[in-house]
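Homework help thread (please don't just give me the answer)

Our assignment gives two proteins as sequence + structure token strings and asks us to describe the second one. The first is just a warm-up. Here they are:
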Amino acid sequence: MGAYILRRLLLIIPTLFGIMVINFALIQFVPGGPIEQIIAQLEGEGDVFEGFAGGGDAGIQQGGGDERYLGARGLPPEFLEELEREFGFDKPPLERFLNMMWNYIRLDFGESYFRSISVIDLVIEKLPVSITLGLWSTLIAYLISIPLGVRKAVKDGTPFDTWTSGAIIVGYAIPGFLFAILLLVLFAGGSYFQIFPLRGLTSDNWEDLSLLGKIGDYFWHITLPVLASTISAFATLTLLTKNSFLDEIKKQYVMTAKAKGLTERRVMYGHVFRNAMLIVIAGFPAVFIGVFFGGSLIIETLFSLDGLGRLGFEAAVSRDYPVMFGTLFVFGLIGLVVGILSDLMYVFVDPRIDFERRG
């Protein structure tokens, strides 16, 4: 197993390098950039997209400027050159990429172009929201899906299986943002009840609350966003659990155990559970990371939560390249490591699996 883990760790280097190369190359062909963003703001257009929508005519009546940048006519060339030096665009793309990767190897992810804060500090600042949505959504999905999936497998073909399948399909079909709006209207001061807060992760008087008060305030705020982000997450996991149990129940060793006089409960949880739950439990790290990094931008916006979803969107809109590439590198590295942890989870759940021998 040690040799397999070593090979997987070594493969992280070329894989991560390839991810960064592809994304860096693609960004070179995307119209707009941080300089165009600043020009759009100087021209009073809000952002670079509005400049594109207007055909790039801002400042055309004025002379001078630089034809390389949309809307730059009328701006002194010295000013544009100073912006290029500040952002590092006075160097060729290859040199910029190599410098960036060298800094990343040293865990130097740079500073945001527009926020005057390091990328790492910015990510840490947004982590509480993403941890909240990712952790609780994953735990709730597992706590609901596993017992429900087991029950559906035991009651396969019964009315319970039928109506729960219908409920799962309905839940899966409802978009998370639509369910979030429904929750806000019903329980957050919309047209009906004012039970939960409308926005934020904590109250304004958080620092003045006792320990129990802080815990209660935290759960009071996260109830609606977590429910909104979980509504469709448990559907696939429930059906996966059910099908896994059904496959195991039909195997010969289950029939043999029943023939020996073991109770249904003993057979199900003493023999079937471990084999059936292999694929479900072993996938927990990947599921958590997927929910953690894939936080819903719309849900964060609806509940005024400043998390990684909004951070990524705002960085893309403003062309904040240090935030875009820094977070991509960190998240890509974590994702690859979690892939190895998922394999180790398989071995932990079922020691019969030997990836090294298969390799």
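The one we have to describe:
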Amino acid sequence: MVSSIDVVVDHRDAIIPVVLNIFVDVYPSEERRNQEIIEESMQFVKMIPASNEAILSLKSYSLPQNCSICMEKFHDDLKEDDSDDVKVSTMACGHIFHYNCIVQWLQTSHVCPLCRYAMPT
């Protein structure tokens, strides 16, 4: 929105004309403005694929199917919604357990139940 105001000041026989130009950007919401900024910046972004060397250097892991403490599955392949995500934890030795299982275990013993890696006491 652009507005122009002409003001005349009368000060002891001196007339000084003043012209004010006021520029105001008006946006309906901050969220909309943020979206506009993102869209403007995306015009300059060009998607470039990673090199084959970088892709081949990715490490891949096989996770165990069951927690070694409670012997329950980490995930249910038949479950369709992810609303009940399973919380897992990895020890320094790399073994993976249900978070609650390994916490309960470590409150009793300071060693990994699989390889006997000693946690600080």
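TA reply:
I won't write it for you, but here's a hint about the kind of observation we're looking for: The helical segments are 30-42, 52-56, 99-106.
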